[in-house]
Amino acid sequence: MESVLYKKYQDTLSSWCKGEELDPAHAILIAGVAEDVSISQIEELMQTVRCWGRVRVRGRTYSVEAGGLLVLCECKEEIKPQIVPPEVRSDDGTIVWHIVVVDPRPDLSDASEDFVGKLQSFLQAEGKTIADLQDYVATSAPAKGTEEFFIHAMAEVMKQSNRGMAESHSYRRLRVFSGITPTPMGEEQVEYWLEQATVMVEGSDCPEKEKRRRIIESLRGPALEIVRSLRFSNPEASSDEYISAIDRAFGSPETGEDLYFAYRLIQQKSGEMLSDYVQRLEPFLAKVVRKGGVRAQDMNRVRIEQLLRGAVGADIMLLQLRLKEKRANPPTFLELLSQIRVEEEHERSRRKVHARVRSVGAQDCVSATDFDLQELRADVKALQAKMSELKVKSNPVSKESVSTKVQVR
């Protein structure tokens, strides 16, 4: 937007705020809004920008120069011109609105003041101050010089910030959870939502404020009301406290001790592989830890003890893995699962070898039996041939003796 036109819109904003008895520090002017855009659409799009909080439309007027409507908006948060974006765009890029504030933009001709203002805004967004940066430089600056190290420190801070911003734009959103029973289609059950939220909070490098925002944007209905109540009573509540509130309101009412005893009763099913049994135990064990039934540092030991107790169909494999000897220094879940899978593969290989040996032995026995049977058949045929030969030789003698007897008579 041209500077002359921007200055004119600033004057319009100031006059409009006086007429509406609106504090200019909580007001912004939107230029270029199409006439067919409703107030609810304007407020919804503007509230996607976090720097001014909740937005409410206070008035609209048509402007030929803007090519559309000028919209006066009241913001919940105080407007800080240094961090206000010059324009707002929709996700698909089809909507572009120019933003005007009363306070003038930083004077670009004064490079030093512009740098200091941007540096203060940047450090404030990161939860730091210039004093913190100066203390870090004073305590860590090497012999090569403070100025050079200050530049290096700023580069590191910028690198961490860019990594956090990249994560903020690329993270996988939490599934929606409302706490309504039965669970509506498209929403997550409380146990699965708690697992996802816990992983996000523990594994993300983003600021605490961003973690809280991610949790809130995934909640609906009764679940959102629970977090709102928590924020009202404790505005500084952490993301862990948000998750704990949802767990207490909608999670299992069982205590950590009850869940631990139930965990100790889980046994291996008939025909179930030991690796499958371990994987079936792990989500339940994580739930026990989350409820306080077991300390996180004791998970590996408890897992080994339950294997020795509940793996009723894998005694030989447990001996081969020597799990009793590993109680003092138990492996992690991934290490244990890898060891079990390797041993299961060895067991399958041994079974294949034994099956081949039995098959070859059975074939040898069948071959020897067939050979004896053939030899016996040959002997029988030879004996039959000899008997036939004897019969032929005995027939002439029989006939001659019969004829002689007839002549005598």
Explain this structure to me?
Residues 13-99 form the Paraneoplastic antigen Ma-like N-terminal domain. This is Paraneoplastic antigen Ma1 homolog. Pfam families: PNMA, PNMA_N. InterPro entries: PNMA, PNMA_C, PNMA_N. Residues 177-337 form the Paraneoplastic antigen Ma-like C-terminal domain. The protein has 409 residues and is an alpha+beta fold. The protein folds into four domains: 3-100, Alpha-Beta Plaits, CATH 3.30.70; 115-170, no CATH class; 190-250, no CATH class; 256-343, no CATH class. The chain has 14 helices and five strands. It has a five-stranded antiparallel sheet, sandwiched between helices. Helix 6 packs antiparallel against helix 9 (239-250), helix 8 crosses helix 9 and helix 11 (274-290) packs antiparallel against helix 14. The longest helix is centred in the C-terminal third of the chain and has 76 residues, at 333-408. The protein starts with a helix and ends with a helix. Residues 105-112, 166-170 and 398-409 have low confidence and may be disordered.
CATH class of the largest domain: Alpha Beta
Trace the largest sheet across and list its strands: 2-3-1-5-4
The helix/strand class is alpha+beta
* Cα distance spanning the termini: 155 Å
Largest sheet: 5 strands, antiparallel
Number of spatially distinct domains: 4
Counting DSSP H or I runs of 4 or more residues, the number of helices is 14
What proportion of the residues form beta strands (DSSP E)? Answer: 5-15%
> In CATH terms, what is the architecture of the largest domain?
2-Layer Sandwich
Q: What is the H-and-E element order? A: HEHEEEEHHHHHHHHHHHH
Q: Give the CA-based shape.
A: elongated
Q: Residue-averaged pLDDT, rounded?
A: 78
Helical amount = 55-70%
Organism: Culter alburnus (Topmouth culter)
Protein name: Paraneoplastic antigen Ma1 homolog
Pfam families: PNMA (PF14893), PNMA_N (PF20846)
